[in-house]
Amino acid sequence: MAYENILFTLEDGIATITFNRPKALNALNGALLDELTQALDEVAENEDVRVLILTGAGEKSFVAGADITELATFGPLQAKIFAQKGQTVIGQLQALPIPVIAAVNGFALGGGSEMALACDFIYASENANFGLPEISLGIIPGFGGTQRLPRLIGANMAKEMIFTGKMVPAAEAKEIGMVNRVFSAEALMEEARKTAKAIASKGKVSLRAAKQSINRGLNTDLATGLDIECDAFALCMASEDAKEGTTAFLEKRKAEFKGRRQ
Ligand code: CO8
């Protein structure tokens, strides 16, 4: 379908969703969130998609947060509906069975940081800045920031970011474990695509099992997590991918995964 607030491309199994409101630094309004919901449905339903990359249009911003022009008009009920809409679509993003990379090319503030936090990992450009500035607006993060950030970087670091609302530049975000790698602005998308391509060459079934094991295990105790891993491992062994991967190793050739869902 045609989108107005995002761009959607698919090439060699790698889908890219680009937040596309550069004049408002790609701020998230209701219309954009609705389009993102539809695009994520498209991604989930299309078996050809192996990896998803999220990025922002223009050179300045990934996403500068929720659209404050829209936010400022909300009463409590509208705010709740908007927060639920954001949390639902970000939950949908996190629940995608395929790997998702955030390529953060500039500001990732408020809902922008929260969007990136729901991806599997973050690559950033040197000029990227992360932050949860809601406290300076008299509100708090409402798209999962108070929950996902402490799970990633620890409660104390997350509290410092959320209580001060300060921006954290890319290099520091890498140091505290929020970002995996930092590249020049020019190299960011190429590097994200290179990694996406390497991941896309692996088996779809085992990628899905690994992602689900990690995500479900993070929210449980070790013993339960290990049970989840055992079950996922056993299911993998029933897949064509596992047959191909192990046979290819024994035949001393490169595995060719079909990427079929089973
Ligand atoms: N919403 C709407 N418009 C925005 C936003 C935004 N979040 N951010 C920037 N813009 C607009 C500016 O208004 C400006 O528009 P115009 O040219 O028409 O005046 C344009 O983008 C360019 O911005 P600036 O001129 O301000 O650019 P600078 O380089 O000077 O500054 C900053 C860039 C630092 C990013 C600055 O724009 C800024 O501080 N933006 C706001 C960042 C922010 O506070 N984000 C958090 C929003 S709240 C949030 O995300 C909560 C999520 C959960 C909500 C759930 C509850 C309902």
Defining traits:
262 residues, 2 domains, 2-enoyl-CoA Hydratase, Chain A, domain 1, 6-stranded mixed beta sheet, Lyase 2-enoyl-coa Hydratase, Chain  A, domain 2, alpha/beta
Structure commentary:
The protein is of the alpha/beta class and 262 residues long. The chain folds into 2 domains: 6-200, Alpha-Beta Complex (2-enoyl-CoA Hydratase, Chain A, domain 1); 204-250, Lyase 2-enoyl-coa Hydratase, Chain  A, domain 2 (Orthogonal Bundle), CATH 1.10.12. Helix content is 48%, strand content 16%. The chain contains 11 helices and 10 strands. The protein has helices at residues 30-45, 68-71, 76-95, 111-117, 145-153, 155-164, 170-175, 188-200, 204-218, 222-237, 240-250; strands at 6-11, 14-19, 51-56, 61-63, 100-104, 107-109, 121-125, 129-131, 168-169, 181-183. The strands form 2 sheets. The chain has a 6-stranded mixed beta sheet, with helices on both faces. A 4-stranded mixed beta sheet has the order 4-6-8-9. Helix 1 packs parallel to helix 3 (76-95), helix 4 packs across helix 5 (145-153) and helix 5 crosses helix 6. The longest helix has 20 residues, at 76-95. The radius of gyration is 19 Å and the shape is globular. It starts with 5 loop residues before the first strand and ends in a 12-residue tail after the last helix. The relative contact order is 0.11. The mean pLDDT is 95. Octanoyl-coenzyme A binds at residues 24-25, 27, 64-69, 71, 79, 82-83, 86, 107, 109-111, 133-134, 137, 141-143.
